Every structure is written in structure tokens, then in C-alpha cells.
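Exercise: predict the fold of this chain.
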Amino acid sequence: MTAENKNPEAAAIQLLNQAALGYVVSAALNVALELGIADLLADGPRSTVDLAKDAGVREDGLYRVLRALASAGIFEERGRRMFALNTPASMLRKGPASLHDLGLWMTDPFHFRVYAETLHSVQTGRPAAEKVTGMPVFEYFAREPKLSSVFNNAMTSWSGPTVAAALKAYDFSGIEMLVDVAGGHGYVLTSILRQYPAMRGVLFDLEHVIEGAGPLLEASGVADRVMTATGDFFDAVPPGADAYIMKNIIHDWNDDRALPILTNIWNAFEGRRDGRVILLEAVIPPGNQPDFGKLIDLEMLLIPGGRERTAEEFASLFESAGFELARIVPTESPLSVIEARIAQRR
């Protein structure tokens, strides 16, 4: 019998303390990310005296932040006030497959302000972010270039492992023209095009987002097969494609707001009967098992006003827009590939 089973009350207290103080770890992690501590430790263990000097901060405060993170399993304290990378901390270094940019977004002080108003969303059904900013969050991003950059960099960073997993699990063959709706800086689209050299693509997003896509497109090696288009997917999407893909877009919206996006895609097929919609989204499983999507669902509630969905909820939403759920393909990432086809009867 484990110690946990011998004393369930003590285990429950530990669990509740961890939950109640989760924001403390998040705040400490934000400090480490902003200061680039993981990169400063790339060559091996260092003292907090040296780290503080390079980072331009006070040593005592930095030590206490890193000690707290090490107690949560991020970084390791080796000897007196000496710290080193461990596997989680190594993933915070900048570079390919890094979680640095995603971590900066998820721990940004913006989140602390929004999550302080969680009860507002539960009481009203409205995004807490709107109470904090005074406007829908994507309008706010357009007015706050620094925060918008943090968000877009995070989405690009998150695209890396999720797109690699999707390409491994799902066959995109047969698509000649693929439109990436709200495709950000184009990481998803260019990754697919690199693996399918006969495919062409359209990167579609708001104007201020597309303006930041140039460097990634030029570095992708497939820029000659990518066109860009700007607009609002609530009004229309570019027509003429064989398939439309969206990564973590439909989850930004409740059903009333997601339906027009899918309906505009249905209209863009212009009567063809073989079009498909491909979503990269979390699919909420039943029961009490821990699941990434169940936490991100609260992010959707509080910030854009959307939701994560079960398989049944996806099927119902697709049906309302004239599609039918064809299949859900799990991947090695938290996101699945969700494929819908034009319904043969509407």
C-alpha cells in the first residue's frame, strides 16, 4: 500500500495546494522565460550569481524563482545556488521544437488579468477578456502589436509538433489546392506543401497577420506555391480549393459563431461535391481522465468565447453547415485530425 493510500487526506491537501498555487509556478515560469534562463544554462550548470549578472536582475529573487521552479520539476538545483537544465527546462530554450514562445504566451501577464475574472464568464457566458480589455480579444490584438506578436509566435511554435504529428497520421494526397483559413504566419500550410510537392496553397488571414508572414514564407522553400489573401472569414473565404484546413480556429468560437465560418467554406466550394474540411483540434474524451483539451476549454471560454468539443459536438456542428463528419484521426500530439466532407444531402 502506497503512502497516498494510507493517508488520503494528506494526498488531498497536497493536490489542493498544487491547484490553488498553480499561478505561482506560472508566474515564476514567465520570469525564467523573459530572462532566457534556459539559454543561459545551455553550456552547463551555473550559479545564480552569474545568471543574475547576465540577466540584469537581483540574485536573491532569481534564486528563489528558480528554486520554486525546480521544486515543480523545471530546472534542477545542483549544489548551493547552482542550477542546471533538465528535460523540461531544455524545452524552453529558443530554437526548433522549443516551447519557449508558447510558454511566453501562456504565462503572459495578460492571462493573469483575464483569469482573475473567470467568475464573470461563468456568470454571464461572456469572455472575461472582453471585460478586461473592453473589446473582443482579436480586436485588442490588432491594437496591441507586442501582445499580438507574442500570440502569433506562440501559435507558430505550437504548430511545429502538432503539424508534424498530423502529417504522420493523415494522408493529404489528392488535394491540389489547399486554403489555410486563419493560417497565421503559414507554418501549417508550408509544412504540408513541403511534404506534397504537387500541392498549391492559399494563406488566408487578417491583413495585420499576413503582414508578418513574409519571413516564414520566404524561408519555407515553397513560397512559389503559396498565394496570400486577406479578409474576414465571417464574410467569406477564398473560393476554388479542394480542401480547407484550420488549426485551432473553430475552437475559438461557440457554435453560433463557428457556423458562419463553416457555411462560408461550404459556399466557397461552389457546388462541387467532393470538397473536404480538415480541422486540427482537440477532441474532448468522456469521463474524468486528465486531458489537455479540458483545460484549454477554459482558455476558450475566457478569452475568445469559444469551446473545445466532443466528437458528437463536432458532428452536430458540421451537419448544421452542410457537411458530415467523415473521421477523426488521433495523432501523437494533443490535437486530432478531424475530416468532414460535403454532405450528399442538404
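Check your answer against the key: The radius of gyration is 22 Å.
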